[in-house]
């Protein structure tokens, strides 16, 4: 009798998050041409990530740390010092400033730091013209080593202060600070150096802009806390995590010759513990991923985002799914709170129908065999991630997807959906099997089958949702198709 590694979330308790950060993602656009002054850079993941696992790990470590501090900290002074220090350190600058704008457009230095300490009052001269330009245009900018003519583009103060590197970003995203209904603080995050250790890149500016916007969130949170609006503060933090997750979710399934892929997910709240993804391996094979972290809220949401991004990078450089999952588990086992874990299904298939998988404690996917009209499952091959440090995962025995065969992978939120009138009843794996058996003989498309299972669950539950739900279908085309 083999070991049953499937780990239902219903047996677990929700732990608070011990934030782990080794964020890796798919390649971003190449660097833009070198320029003494760069224009706006949206603080989106595509602009921050390079595809280099080491560089991206550090960048996302900084970003997720900032999100965690903004969501958890109640001491605004310590929080502002932390973000300014982190921005200065990350950009390898000498000094960092948080400058706020008064109603009469005067500039007020809120924070001035160097090497983790407050700057003396007599060492707080900075380029006011740069800050004014950034706040007025709501556009971040950076400089690299530049001559006098280039520095004059930013103002005489850059020359007078003998600055060789300056980076500045507005606190509020473009277009928001000047809206009549906006309560966001106008100002800028600013760093400079008289000794340039490296040039500021476009990706530096994107990450720097993201940090500046988190300062705006922190200041807004302080205002809301003063008004005892704790619920609103938390929702803002969740929205940040949700935006990161949405940026990582596939916008559409990939086109794979001879196969159909379709995915659907429905979060129980803004930030979800579920995710799914489609990733092409370096050897040309395709990976299907479904994951589920215990709990709800910003902690599990950030872990799903970091795990998903890590999988993308690992799968581009490794072809063995067992090694990929083993590496991810090593990160999780060190950094997750007791009681928190990630169940994961990772299936890898090729155009000839060859399939192998790693199931780390996840709800077993179902496999419809069209030729003999039977339904099997893909049982767990190891425990959930984050539970056992040093666990070496194994890949399943190889199998073949024949024409018109369909694989359905889903999270436990789907099978644990309760009946709308009889809450003691669950939709269960039997509900999925019943729909698959009823429709499978008709050889439905991956999209149609997904829609029918979703419709069945929603009808059963009356549309109520207690947990995140995710469903992904993989179907090999029939002999007469395509």
Description of the molecule:
The structure is a single chain. This protein has 13 helices and 17 strands. The chain has 482 residues and is of the alpha+beta class. The protein folds into two domains: 220 residues, GAF domain (Beta-Lactamase); 226 residues, PPM-type phosphatase domain (Phosphatase 2c, domain 1, 4-Layer Sandwich). The radius of gyration is 25 Å and the shape is elongated.
In short:
With 482 residues, the protein is an alpha+beta fold.
Report helical residue fraction. Answer: 25-40%
CATH classification class of the largest domain: Alpha Beta
**Gyration radius over CA:** 25 Å
End-to-end distance: 42 Å
The main β sheet shows up as:
7 strands, antiparallel
What's the total number of strands?
Answer: 17
Order of helices and strands: EHHHEEEHEHHEEHHEEEHHEEEEEEHHHE
Based on the coordinates given, report the CATH architecture of the largest domain.
4-Layer Sandwich
Q: Structural class of the secondary structure composition?
A: alpha+beta
In CATH terms, the superfamily of the largest domain is PPM-type phosphatase domain
Poorly predicted runs: 10-44
Features:
20% strand, five-stranded antiparallel β-sheet, seven-stranded antiparallel β-sheet, alpha+beta, Phosphatase 2c, domain 1, 482 residues, 13 helices, 2 domains, Beta-Lactamase
């Amino acid at each position: 009798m083999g070991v049953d590694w499937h780990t239902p979330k219903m047996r677990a308790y929700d732990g608070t998050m011990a934030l782990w950060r080794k964020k890796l993602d798919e390649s971003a656009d190449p660097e833009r041409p070198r320029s003494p002054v760069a224009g706006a850079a949206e603080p989106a993941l595509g602009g921050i990530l390079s595809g280099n696992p080491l560089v991206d790990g550090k960048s996302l470590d900084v970003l997720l740390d900032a999100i965690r501090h903004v969501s958890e900290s109640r001491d605004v002074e310590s929080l502002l010092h932390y973000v300014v220090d982190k921005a200065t350190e990350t950009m390898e600058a000498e000094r960092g400033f948080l400058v706020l704008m008064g109603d009469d457009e005067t500039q007020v230095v809120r924070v001035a730091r160097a090497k983790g300490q407050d700057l003396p009052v007599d060492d707080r001269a900075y380029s006011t013209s740069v800050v004014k330009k950034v706040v007025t245009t709501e556009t971040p900018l950076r400089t690299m080593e530049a001559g006098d003519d280039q520095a004059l583009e930013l103002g005489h103060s850059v020359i007078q202060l003998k600055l060789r590197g300056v980076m500045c970003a507005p606190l509020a995203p473009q277009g928001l600070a000047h809206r009549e209904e906006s309560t966001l603080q106008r100002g800028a995050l600013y760093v400079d150096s008289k000794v340039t250790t490296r040039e500021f890149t476009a990706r530096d500016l994107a990450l720097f802009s993201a940090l500046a916007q988190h300062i705006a969130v922190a200041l807004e949170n302080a205002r809301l806390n003063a008004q005892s609006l704790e619920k609103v503060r938390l929702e803002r933090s969740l929205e940040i995590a949700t935006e990161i997750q949405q940026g990582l979710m596939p916008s559409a399934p990939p086109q794979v010759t001879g196969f159909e892929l379709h995915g659907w997910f429905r979060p129980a709240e803004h930030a979800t513990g579920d995710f799914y993804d489609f990733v092409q391996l370096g050897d040309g094979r395709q990976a299907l991923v479904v994951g589920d972290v215990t709990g709800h809220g910003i902690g599990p949401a950030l872990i799903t985002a970091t795990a998903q991004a890590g999988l993308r990078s690992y799968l581009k450089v490794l072809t063995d799914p067992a090694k990929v999952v083993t590496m991810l588990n090593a990160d999780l086992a060190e950094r997750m709170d007791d009681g928190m874990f990630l169940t994961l299904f990772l299936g890898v298939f090729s155009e000839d129908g060859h399939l192998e998988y790693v199931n780390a404690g996840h709800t077993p996917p179902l496999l419809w065999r069209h030729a003999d009209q039977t339904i099997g499952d893909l049982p767990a091959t190891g425990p959930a991630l984050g539970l056992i440090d040093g666990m070496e995962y194994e890949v399943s025995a190889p199998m073949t997807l024949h024409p018109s065969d369909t694989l359905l992978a889903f999270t436990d939120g789907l099978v644990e959906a309760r009946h709308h009138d009889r809450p003691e009843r669950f939709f269960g794996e039997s509900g999925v099997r019943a729909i698959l058996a009823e429709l499978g003989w008709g050889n439905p498309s991956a999209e149609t089958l997904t829609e029918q299972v979703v419709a069945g669950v929603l009808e059963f539950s009356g549309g109520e949702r207690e947990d995140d739900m995710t469903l992904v279908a993989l179907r090999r085309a029939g002999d007469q198709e395509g």
